[in-house]
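for the writeup, i need someone to sanity check this before i put it in the appendix. the sequnce is what the collaborator sent (i think, or maybe the updated version? ugh). structure was predicted straight from it, no edits. if anything looks off just tell me and ill rerun, i have time this weekend
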Amino acid sequence: MSDGDTNPRVPAEGGLGAPMRHLIPWHDANWWDPAKLDDELRRVFDICHGCRRCFNLCDSFPRLFDLIDATDAGEIEAVASTDFKSIVDACTLCDMCFMTKCPYVPPHAFNLDFPHLMLRYRAVEAKAGKVPFTARQLTETDRNGALAKLAPGLVNWVSARDNSLTRGVLESVAGVDRRAELPKFHGRTFATRARDEVPAANAAAPGFGREAVIYATCFVNWNNPEIGVLARRVLAHLGVATEVAYPRCCGMPQLEQGNVAKVSEAAAEVARTLRPAVDAGRTIVALVPSCALMLKSEWPLLCPDNDDVKALAAATRDISEYIVDIARKEGLPAIGPLPGPVTLHLACHGRAQNFGQKAAEMLRLAADADVKVIERCSGHGGSWGVMKDNFDTAIKVGRPVARQALQAARPFVVSECPLAAEHILQGMEIAAAATKDGETPPVPTRSWHPVELLAAAFGLNDRT
């Protein structure tokens, strides 16, 4: 019981207890009841309106406050329920309000979990058939990736930001903003390359004897296999014997749209596939923070009775988290410098894992590392930020990050989330274009994942 508590069952505001999350009761009929959902929205929105600590996190909160403030009464009762949608639509499920700002998260008696309330709204909306067909198709990452790898050159030409002919059509048909940078596709996926390129574990490394399974993630598998290849080389150099597995996408894109049934299905399949490796004592290493968060946190909240899911959650580590653990417990082989000064964005879903600045710790393992950390949301929000309805908001939310990165003027802009990194570069371009010529340094031509630069410090990546 913290100082100031008068009732041990009702923790005092500002207590030192860690936030706790309740299970997501999506099998309960009350969870789906629109009237009960509306009651909960009003209860939470009223508390948020009186608090306002999250005013600068994303666009959801300013929209909420403006809606209430614009009424004559200045009270939530005067706001129409139909107006709540704009608040929900602005949420990227970054989890930063829950993890870093809100004083009323469980175990506080107010029991606020704003992101999961937004998820509930979207789930009810999805069940009612209100998610557009094209939006649903964009989240089918495995199907889209399998089709794109048949003709990646053509797909990348069509989706190129400077292709005014096709991007206009894509915007009209699919609602994808023509200005948004889109991921590229590859003909040889990470899973394919992993079968052909198997690095031997370094027997001389202090960490020799460790075994891990790399969960490829949809982005690394289909869109940037090089991240996976270099991560595997680094782990092998550290003495870790690895296999690569990719049963299917973790379901984060579907979670963003409230399709909790499909996410649960993905959880069951992936956990069942990886269970033998977990039982054999291998660590499951995820290459993208959003996917690590799904395996560790979201899946167990959706599937609390699935023993495979629980076992997988306990065995999963983010790539940066895992490498730092090796460094702390066994030590590293000799390591050189990074290829240059780094601006490092800490991804929201990395921060939501509550393990500290592991990407920064990992890069600072290199000799004389010069790493500037930016700890704020990029505004991208996965597939959310590329949509025409959201792109301007995504740029606005990410503007502080882009400005800090631009002012830092470092040659390497890095994020644990590859989509966030590309979005930051776009924000930097827009910010630079708004200034007078010559007043800002040039924007780097590409972004990086932290493990790519660590690979360079070990002499395993000659593309930096």
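Residues 260-279 form the longest helix (20 residues). The CA atoms of residues 24 and 394 lie 27 Å apart.
thx in advance!!
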